[in-house]
Amino acid sequence: MNKFDHERKLKILEILVGLKFLYIILASFNIISYYNVTLNKGNIVFVIIIACCIVPFMVFCSKMIYGDMEKSFFNMPIIYNIMEMIVILGLFIILMSNTGGSNSSFKYIGSIIVLIVSIQYKREVSFWINIVVCLIILGFNLVEFDYLSLSKNFDIIRNFEGDIILVSSLMITSFILSLYINIENDYNLKLKELAVKDGLTGLFNHRSFQDILGSYIRNSKKENKEVSLLFMDIDNFKNYNDVNGHQRGDWLLTRLGEVLRNTVGDLGIVTRYGGEEFAVILYNQSEDIALNLGELIRQNIQNTYFIGQEHQPNKHITLSIGVSTYPKVAKTKKELIELADNALYRAKSFDKNRVERYYNILDEIDPSIDKKSLESVANMLNNINMKDKYTYGHSERVVIYAKKFATYLQMKDKDKKELLLGAYLHDIGKLEISKELLTKREKLSESEFNILRQHPTLGSDLVSSIKEFADVIPLIKYHHEKYDGTGYPSKLKGDDIPYLARILTIIDSFDAMTSKRPYNIRKDYKQAIGELEKCAGSHFDPELVYKFIEMLQNDMLEKKMPRELDSNLSFIDDINKDYKKKLPEII
Question: CB neighbours of 357 closer than 8 A, spacing ≥ 6?
């Protein structure tokens, strides 16, 4: 239940409580008026007893209004509602019978019962309760009718005629009020749907995404369940729009939403996050299930024909997908969104059309390093990420390649840890360079290149005060040195360049060539390998670069990318069979 529904139902509850209290007050006045009650000692005691009955009722009503309304009034078991109606109707019968029967003025208070049931219950239920009220009113006339002496029944007949008019008025009032409430409810449902659904795709919109995810996070805390989030972005959507037109682009978004909805089914909730981004929220589903679902979505989209896809770079419509989980990885709703978005960016960085989980790159670094030192550096890199997403993603990819290459070279643990830490920190000096320069799309001028070439020295200076990072300063400072001595900042040559720095130079250059950068044209793997071979002995250590190429070619033959994700599609089929569930009412 969202905030607006809660406020609306609270107002309705206040009206109902007021009507029920008015019913009791009018009943009391009716009794006092009929019996000409005077305030003697006995009557004072009687008033106190009545007050003692009313006070608990009002306390109960106040608790409903200001307490946990969702778990009190509107979700009461049916038996409570039945008991309440029995009490109200029973009181109505008792008071009518004790205040004149068919002559009782209390029967006019039946209109309050009509109002209560018309507001509180569905039209069918309120109709039958109102029938009962009308039969009670008419029943007193039939009970008092003297079938042996018709001459005594003129007053009863006259009352009966008046009661027929009263009953007809009550039924008409009930019908019109119930009809109005139904129309208002239907109208509210349509408005609600417009408010929570995306007008183009029919999926839940961004506002609903926030409400649903927030509700799931709150439930997760109470029930100790996991919440998994998949962020999806259409690859090369701008190109599709430019070639096919924006109307066809809208059609693509709608069609893709249908495929997502059919693929996910009851396993989760599909939303349009904004633009060409979609999201799937899974409750009580692990990260592994989310990854397998993401892979199934990716394959289904790639294997579906979309009009105009032949004009796309890879001749298909594809998605990049990022996955994160609460509370296993993320600790807050905001962090869950940020980490899933970072995982999506990683998927985009790794040649698109893939599924990536978020993991903390710091887990790859030497755990013996002081946590505060790592956190301070991580904060610096997060600041870089805010300035330039490419640099941050590039650093993470370099760490992944470095880990694979270190394993391939069978490095000692100490060297491996130093290489990974150096890979993580090698571009930290860009924190001192302006955002405008880092993100400039045009070709850099010579003076701008000179500024950019300062980042190895700036980076080594930044970490020089942290003793745990002393061993990796050469990697940071010399990762742009070239084997023939034409690099920077110190123009070191050959074996004068530290061994790990020579490795880092190869990895850094390869990722730079295969990534989309503001000021350079991206190369594919084969083109980048060709460039590495061309520059062996000049830019790169020839022995190391050929080992790196060998590792890449082995990966390409095995069709592996630098990540670990098994696509167990049969597992998804089992999930769809075994984990069908009803979605909670949270919109």
Answer: 287, 291, 322, 323, 324, 343, 565
- Predicted pLDDT of residue 519: 60
229 has which bridge partners? 281, 324
Helix ranges, 265-370 (H): 287-303, 333-349
What is the largest distance, in Å, between two alpha-carbon atoms of the chain?
129
Task: Give the residues across from 549 on adjacent strands.
Answer: none
DSSP 433-468: S-HHHHT--SPPPHHHHHHHTTHHHHHHHHHTT-GG
Which of 167, 212, 161, 172 is closest to 2 using CA atoms? Answer: 212
HEC profile of 342-390 = HHHHHHHHCCCCCEEECCCHHHHCCCCCCHHHHHHHHHHHHHHHHHCHH
pLDDT score recorded for residue 149: 56
Looking at residue 452, its amino acid is L
Q: How far apart are CA 94 and CA 104, in angstroms?
A: 11
Query: 272: which strand partners?
Result: 278
Residues 7-26 have pLDDT tens digits of 777 787 778 777 877 777 77
Interatomic CA distance for residues 240 and 450, integer angstroms: 37
Listed in sequence order, the residues at least 6 apart from 472 whose beta carbon sits closer than 8 Å to its beta carbon are: 418, 421, 422, 425, 463
Residue for token pair 């078991």: 77
HEC string for 122-140 = CHHHHHHHHHHHHHHHHHH
94-110 burial: b if 16+ Cβ within 10 Å, else e: ebbeebbbbebebbebb
Residues 6+ apart with CB under 8 A from 213: 227, 229, 281, 333, 336, 337
For the stretch 389-424, what's the b/e string if a residue is b when 16 or more beta carbons lie within 10 angstroms of its beta carbon?
bbbbbbbbbbbbbbbbbbeebebeeeebbbbbbbbb
pLDDT band of 133, cuts 50, 70, 90: confident
DSSP-H helix ranges across 67-153: 78-98, 110-120, 123-144
Judge whether residue 566 has pLDDT over 50: no
User: 150 is written with which tokens?
Assistant: 């018709």
- Tell me how far apart the alpha carbons of residues 475 and 418 are, in angstroms, rounded to a whole number: 9
Instruction: Assign 476 a pLDDT band (cuts: 50, 70, 90).
Output: very high
Burial state string for 543-567 with b = 16 or more CB within 10 A and e = fewer than 16: ebbebbbebbeeeeeeeeebeebee
In whole angstroms, give the CA distance from residue 502 to residue 541.
7
pLDDT at 473 over 90: yes
Q: Please indicate, yes or no, whether the overall pTM of this predicted structure exceeds 0.90.
A: no
Q: Exposed, middle or buried: residue 451 (CB in 10 Å: 0-12, 13-18, 19+)?
A: middle
Q: To 5 degrees, how large is the angle CA 191–CA 68–CA 10?
A: 40
User: CB atoms < 10 A from the CB of 249, how many?
Assistant: 19
CA distance 6 to 302: 42
- In 3D space, the residue among 91, 76, 77, 88 whose CA is nearest the CA of residue 126 turns out to be 88
- Give the list of residues 6+ apart from residue 395 with CB closer than 8 angstroms, or none: 361, 381, 423, 424, 425, 426, 427
| DSSP category for residue 102 | G
